[in-house]
Structure formats: C-alpha cells, structure tokens
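Hey,

The postdoc asked me to send both predictions to you directly instead of through the lab channel. I've kept everything plain text so nothing gets mangled by the mail client. Protein one:
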Amino acid sequence: MSEHLIDPQSSLVEKRYAVVFTPRRQRTRFPENCVEIMANREQAVAQSDRDNRRFPAIVYGPARSSEGFRLYYLVEWLDE
C-alpha cells in the first residue's frame, strides 16, 4: 500500500493498471519512464516479467514532483 497521500477525488491523477520496471520492490514511487500503462489487470499480469524486473501493479499518476518529474505512486502489487 502506498504511503503517499493521494486525494482520490482529484482529477489530476488516475488509478491505473501498469507494468513497473524496478530493481527493488521496496520503492513506492516511480518515474514515468519505468511505468507502462495497461488497459486492465489481466493485461498487466500477462505483460509482467519477473526475470526482467517488470512487475504488475496498480499505480496513481502521473503526478508532477517538486523537481518537475512525472511520477507514478504504487497502490499495490498485483502478484503478491
């Protein structure tokens, strides 16, 4: 579960299914170049590849960070 505060009523970010490339699953936010948005849960799971560190997830985003980067925030991993 994400430790970041996200306003679910906000139209600035959306909850999405995705495949996230990450070397460590302890992270809870990811730059947009590490996130591939998928149409649905089944597609995210099918496109994941644990051996290549591509994990299915639900994410919120994109949101702009204070440094100007577009980030996605982890809601939950779909394969746990």
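Protein two:
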Amino acid sequence: MSKLIYLDNSATSFPKPESVYDFMNTFYRKHGVNPGRSGFDAAIETEEVVTNTRKLLTKLFNGGEDYNRLTFSYNATDSLNLIINGLVEPGAHVITTMLEHNSVLRPLYQHKEAGTIDVTYLPFDKHGYIDPEDVRKAIRPNTKFVIMTQCSNVIGTVQPLAAVGKICKENGLIFVVDGSQGAGCNPMDMQAYNIDVYCFTGHKCLMGPTGIGGSYVREGITINKTRAGGTGVRSAYPGHLEEYPYRLEYGTLNLLGVAGLNAGVKWLNENGLENIHSREMALWDKLRKALQQIKGVTTYCAESTENHNPVLSFNINGFEAGDVGIMLDVDYNIAVRTGLQCAPKVHEGIGTFDMHGTVRMSIGAFTTEEEIDTAIQAVTEIAAIKN
C-alpha cells in the first residue's frame, strides 16, 4: 500500500510533530502522577508542566494577566457546553451564526427546545462571511451573549471577530468564540478583539493529542458552575470552589493531554504560526485553483486566500460526496472528510444539505506539494468518469 495522503486535518492534525510524541512519552513515564494533590517532588514537577501550559496558551491567545483563568477540559465541545450552560438564563436571547459546528448548535438547541432561551442564527454571504452589522441589528433588550466560530470547519472562512467584538463591547454583550479551527492556525488576540471567552481544542492546529481542550475566561465575566467534584485542594469546603482554575475544572486532569499540548504549542512557537499558515495556504491556493479548472467540479466559498484557512469543500457532478471519498481512499489512499461535517447549517447556506454535503480536503503542517499534486490528479480522474 502506498503512503497515506492525509487531507483531514480539520478533523485532527496528523501526524503530530515528533517533539510532541517524545515529550508525551517521557513526561508520562516520569511524571504520570496527580498534580497539586501531594507535596512530593514528582507531583510538584507535574504541576509545573500544567502551570507552564496555562501560561503558554494564555500568552498565545493574549487572554489576560491571570493564567489561572485558562482552564482545561476534554475538548472544545466540553468547554463550549460548560460556557453555554454557565451563561444561559431563563428568558435570555442568544445570537449565533449559520456557520457553527454542532458543538455550539446542539447545546443552544437543547436550551431552545426546553423553552429557556431564544436564538437568532445569522446568515453568511456568498463568500462565506457574516456581516458584523447583522449582529448589531439582531440585538434585543434581553440579548445575553453572542457566540460564533472563529473559522468554519466546512468552508474555511475566518470570520471578522474584531468587528463583532467591538459591537458586543459597545452593547454590553458577552462575546464567546469557538476557536476549534482557529487556535494555532490564526493569530489570536482576545484583548484586541474584545473576546470574553475563547474555547479551544488541543488536537487540531495546536498539535496536541485528542482528549484535551479548554477555555480562557477574561476577568469580569461570570460563568455559573454547572458541575461539581474533586479539585485536590480545600477538600473540607462543601461546595465546588469559586476560584479559577478550579471553577471550571473537575477531577483529575488529562495530564498526558496537557503534556502533549505543552509540546505542541512550543513547536508552533519555534516554527512560527504565520510561517506554517503561509505555507499551508500556498498549497491550498494551488489545490483550489486546479480543482476549479476541472470540468464538473464545484468548490464552495474559495475565491481568495485572504481571511481563509486551508480547508476546501467541493463536489463532483454526478457523484455523491460519500462515493468520492470512498474512491479517493480505496483507489488513491487519500483520506478526506465527506458529508455534513457536523455543521448542517453551513450546508443549508451553500446549498449542499440535500446533496448530503461535500468532500472536504484540509491541509496541515506536514502536507507536501507532491501530495497536493496527487490529490489534483485523483479528482481529475474521478471527474472524468462522468463529465
């Protein structure tokens, strides 16, 4: 079998940098003990890695002065649930967009169906971007918060967060951003963008393993506690602790995940986020221009590299997206994602919902030009069957 051509980095980055694998292995063999629970050397050293990772991420996102407000969870979905459930109150109105992943859509839907909140879903234009002024127009007296993605996982468009954040600040609204597809790919400046809560996952562009994510909550924002459990400190206190990071952390952390995330962020810092992104976008530009020249191929919201991430969705006339994915896998050993990609409202917006979605190719830090050439040739040959 030929070498796997992996073009599903929006799902999870693969492979990881060797430094991530090495540090996880070394760390867990030497420091696989609970941090902050005991005073012996290994526990103290483990806590130092956890604290260092909080600091690295707080600096990467420019969250604020208090790195303890960077809390860890299982993934972005877990953190988004904690934040949404901790902000929702009866009678509140929430503004979101048609670009969201189910990690935002489903928690909001659950509250909406229960009659707790009302939700407005903002559309995006033909290029794949929301208009910040639509946020302003949607604000009501009872609007509590705005929650939206940094970047679409289907069409790769990076949204105008700074403009939306400015509107939220002017109107006293809490601004929550799902950074699943942006953290580690696009520069983030929570303070400049007036972002109040930033949720992230570790296993995509941050180059960490699965099972680790988190959020940064800026000072002055109250997230109500919706869980309770062990923290390893102040055990005599009957309620869950109020202060960060314990307020949003429950039980033993995924230490192996934190270690991998630590190494992933350091690798990003060493190689330069902008350098990595620039190279990925050059490959994306080559891919999208080539596919747009193939008879029978339709791409979506892929007009320019500006405000875009290396994610390309397309369809081939005469084929189901799922069938194209199978052919790419079986005949060319190319891994892609097909279907609705957990973001059904995006597909409603681009007209592919009833077509059962798209074929999505997502480029990563280790994608090569030769692999893109092979992908272009594969799509060319598949399209020629019926076009």
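Summary for protein two, as requested: The CA atoms of residues 77 and 103 lie 5 Å apart.

Thanks,
C.
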